[in-house]
Amino acid sequence: MSGVEIAFLSIGVMLLLIYSGMHVAIALILLSFGGVWLLRGNFDIASNMLVLAFKDAIADYIFGVVPLFVLMGLLVAVAGIGRDTFEVAAQVFRRVVGGLGIATVAANAVFAAITGISIASAAVFTKVAVPEMMRHGYTPRFSVGVVAGSSVLGMLLPPSLLFILYGVLTEQSVGSLFIAGIIPGTLLALIYCVGILAMGRFWPSFVGGRQIATSEPVREMGAAEMAGKLAPIVVLVALVLGGIYGGFFTPTEAGAAGALGALLISLVKRRLSLTSFWQVLVQTGHTTSSICFLIVGASLYSRMLAMSGMPGWLGSWVVESGLGVTGIIVALLLVVILLGTILDSASIMLLTLPIAIPILMGMQVDLIWLGVLMVIAVEIGLLTPPFGIAVFVVKATMGPDSKVTLNEIFAGAAPFAGMMMLVLVLVFLFPWLATALI
Amino acid sequence: MADEAAIPRDDAPPPHVPSGPFARIIGAMNAVGTLWIIGLMVLINADIIGRSFVNRPIAGVAELVTFSIVGIVFLQLAHTLRSGSMTRSDVLLNLLERRAPRVRFMVLALFHLIGGLLLALVAWKYAPSLAAAWQHPERNFMGNPGFFTVPQWPLYALVLLGIIATAIQFLLLAWSDVHAARRLSR
Amino acid sequence: RQTIRLTVATGHPEVFLWVKHLKETFIPAVDAELAKTGEVEIEWTQGYGGTIVKLGSETEAFQSGIIDVGQMSGVFNPATMGLLNMTYAMPFGPADARGVTAAVEKALADTEGALAGLEEATDVIYIGGGIAIDDYNIASVKPLKTIADMDGVKFGGSGPNLGWLAGTGAVGVQGSYVTFYNDIKTGVYEGNIGWVTANVPAKLQEVAPYWNDVNFGAMYIGGLGVSKVVWDTFSDETKAAFRTAATAYTSAYFDEQEANYEAARKKLGETGGTIVEFERAERSKWIAALPNPTTAWMAAADARGEPARAVLEAYRDNLAATGFTFERDYLAE
Ligand code: NA
Ligand code: NA
Q1: What residue ranges do the domains of chain A occupy?
Q2: How many A×C Cβ pairs under 8 Å?
Q3: Interval between CA A329 and ligand 2 midpoint (Å)
Q4: Which of A186, C19, C150, C306 has the fewest beta carbons under 10 Å from its own?
Q5: How would you write A260-272 as a 3-class SS string?
Q6: Measured between CA atoms, how close is A419 to chain C, in angstroms?
Q7: What percentage of chain C reaches a pLDDT higher than 90?
């Protein structure tokens, strides 16, 4: 069997194993092991590969802050800060079906300014927004879908780890890339809001919003009460935003600062007992463990695919297809979206850009514009099955007692993936959306 | 404290898994990992404060954070699996629960067995790294001499412990699945 | 006719010249050499940018058979290949990257037990292909001319070069080219220790416009390696082909780097950057006050049983033979 055949076989088996209920990380590790064994014909190399990934796949500062972002989200939830915020939002948006969905999107857009990774957004808002939306009568499917869908804003709006990676790989200015992401990111948030309103109107069973209008809270909050309920979240966001843009800490370190801030606010508000704090910590650990073990599996799988030569084969196939510049870009984006179903974001960039960039540079393509297209296309993969890290993070953060299945989260996120496609097409057709502010 | 309901308790194992000394061991490992998260938060904040206000960053924070995340994840992995928090898809399993509960347990037993064997393989291949790091700390450290270094053997020991514990937990799950399948066939 | 399947991989992506020329110069050169007799053909599997092996895991990837050919780098694998980052222990050396590389490779080859010990301990064969980064300097948001200008200023850098700031009152913060731009922009630190052919493509002059020539010197980062198990199966002809290709690699690397160096300094000026000369007398004071940078390096190498002092002395003497003398003889203390 050729490398490419082994790669495609592994994808087929992956689909089968994951949907049959094997733990996703175990399926990825198993397939990587089997794939490398077949590719190299050597049992020792295949097993050594596993050992090395267990040592180095998550040995990175960026993963070190994952538990702290999770902890921040859980503290915000357990201290009732999230609930207070959403009660205010519920009152403000009470005449709008899907109003809390819009509030979640807006909150994510704000949170995007303090995080560079989507995993953080997904973890935080799963704990903060999902229980509140469900409490207000939204369907579980819609509630988790909004959170997974809007978590992509974390990497489309600056700061963004994906733009930094793209900038390093293509020697483009990180500052320009960040600015280029602002309009498309804002546009995506707006389209999400319009989409939520449209779904509320034409597909209310998906949103679950109808009953909201009838089950309105009897008591209206006054302005002072609303301000009081919003104060803690405003303080927290101001602390973290101020810390980042005041040069005190990096967006990566923001998880630690935010977790400490949330802890202090919870203590001041006397909403945290020792028992509940311990529970929060235990769940933080479980969520982190679950996400990071998945990342070990994903890292192994992408290493196996790189060894198989499949991404290179796909890339050269696109490049040598004799398409014009537009054709090549479209084909590149399609390949990226396809790879997004099975690979994590960074791996896709590392595997495709070195093939595509030299050719596209020769064709005078605006690499800042291409960067925005690439990041959107790569991020669609966060939401698509079988491997969608944003969806997995939502699932892991929901905890084992949650009745929401992985499939429901994928289904809930699907309309949002569709809206991302729309934004991708818009940025493709109107490049000024990316370049206007630069 | 009505708000606590927002966080479901997940430190209690699912009822069908028998508890015993092993459960206590992985419970203790989980607790250490849990405390470590607080340590991590304190470390990064101390570095931020030291750097921003007294011009004294903490040397080696990058290495220590890297060291910590690996340690935390593997200390808690077995308990994460036991608590049912490890991600998987329920599409087929839920279908089987209604239509063919016995088949469901057999599928689960097979998957858990594979997980256990796979991690046992990793543990077996991982062990020599620990031995080498212990015997040759001068060749197995993180960081840079003269700036900050931390030996790798303690981390390797924790990771190996975590992999072994997770492998055992997988095999225990497989065992209890087999029992459940047998009970249903009677 | 024999076909050998080899995997070549690096932790860095192809935008780094030392990876680019692995693909563009080294591999084609090996193929061309082998095609002369046509007895051996190599089927390469290539994976750069950490897609197969993560940066810092190269040594273990070699040892466990995951990669066959790749970079041997002391900077990125200090625990296993620390012998190869000797120039970081001898800062304020010459700016001539080619000369530094030649002096290092000669020191490694001539010192008894240096390369042999490294190969024995790591199971990786050093085949040449040494390269060095161009002159390290400091980019900053304000001009630096004296040690007083550096007092209390924070600079991003990595472990091996943050130590060079000792005694200046400047504060070293760990970072990398992935984080420099954003961290300088928001003010986490006010500049970075780096080299101009990386700073300018990363457009760091947009956030830290002053390029201060403090002249830490060019730094040798390593060479090319082949796993010993694989190397031992090679015929003499194949081995010769690899060594010839490694020489071609070094030469192509430096040709491009030197062109880039001139272009980058020119572009720096054209894109809002300013080159500042750090006062020579102040630089001398800095060098004199620096805690001896060779101490920790030698202790670490000695612990591994490597001929630490002998290698450094050979490096110093090789440079002296070409006319460069360190302002301070770190090894005489
Ligand atoms: Na962001
Ligand atoms: Na996906």
Answers
A1: 63-290
A2: 101
A3: 20
A4: A186
A5: HHHHHHHHHCCCC
A6: 29
A7: 97
CA–CA dist B26, B167 (Å, integer): 12
Q: Do C60 and A55 touch (CB under 8 A)?
A: yes
Which of A37, A169, A249, A350 best probes binding to C when mutated, by most C CB atoms within 10 angstroms?
A: A350
Query: What distance in angstroms lies between residue A185's CA and the mean position of ligand 1's atoms?
Result: 10
pLDDT digits (tens, 9 = 90+) for A300-347: 999 999 999 988 888 888 878 888 899 999 999 999 999 999 998 988
Which member of C163, C173, C304 has the closest CB to residue B57?
C173
Residues in chain C: 333
Please determine, for residue A211, whether its predicted confidence score (pLDDT) is greater than 70. no
CB contact under 8 A, C171 and B142: no
Q: Do C172 and B57 touch (CB under 8 A)?
A: yes
Calculate how far, in angstroms, residue A343's C-alpha sits from the geometric centre of ligand 2: 6
What residue type is assigned to position A310 of the chain? M
Q: Which amino acid is at A215?
A: S
Which ligand ends up closest to the CA of A156? 1
What's the confidence (pLDDT) of residue C61? 97
* Closest residue, chain A, to B83 (C-alpha): A400
Inter-chain touch B163–A54, beta carbons under 8 Å: yes
Q: ipTM score here?
A: 0.94
Average pLDDT, integer, range C25-49: 96
Whole-angstrom CA distances from C303 to A351, A427, B60 are 39, 58, 21
Count the helix, strand and coil residues of chain C and give each as a percent rounded to the nearest 5: 50, 20, 30
How far is residue C43's CA from residue C45's CA, in Å, rounded to a whole number? 7
| pLDDT at B99 exceeding the cut of 90 | yes
Q: Which segments of C92-166 are extended strands (E)? A: 124-126, 131-140, 154-157
Average the pLDDT over C140-166 and give the result.
95
Chain A residues within 8 A of C61 when measuring between CB atoms: 52
Ligand in closest contact with the CA of A119: 1
In this predicted structure, the answer to whether residue A350 has a pLDDT above a threshold of 50 is yes
Look up tokens 């007692």; give the residue. A401
Centroid of ligand 2 to alpha carbon of A388 (angstroms): 4
**Does B17 have pLDDT greater than 70?**
no
pLDDT beyond 90 at C250 = yes
- Per-residue CA distances from B121 to A38, A43, A301, C235 (Å): 17, 11, 17, 35
**Could you say which of B10, B68, B115 has the minimum Cβ distance to residue A400?**
B10
Percent of chain A whose pLDDT exceeds 70 = 97
Asked whether A97 and A118 are in contact (CB, 8 A), the reply is no
Question: Of the candidates A20, A50, A61, which has its C-beta nearest B122's C-beta?
Answer: A50
Residues from chain C that touch A347, judged by Cβ atoms under 8 A, are 51
* Model pTM score: 0.93
Please state, in angstroms and rounded to a whole number, the distance separating the CA atoms of residues A352 and A360: 12
| Cα A109 off chain centre by | 13
Q: Do residues A384 and A341 make contact, with C-beta atoms less than 8 angstroms apart?
A: yes
In whole angstroms, what is the distance from residue C185 CA to residue A175 CA? 9
Residues paired with C43 in a beta bridge: C5
For residue A252, which ligand has an atom nearest its CA?
1
DSSP class of C12 = S
Select the more confidently predicted residue: A392 or A85: A392
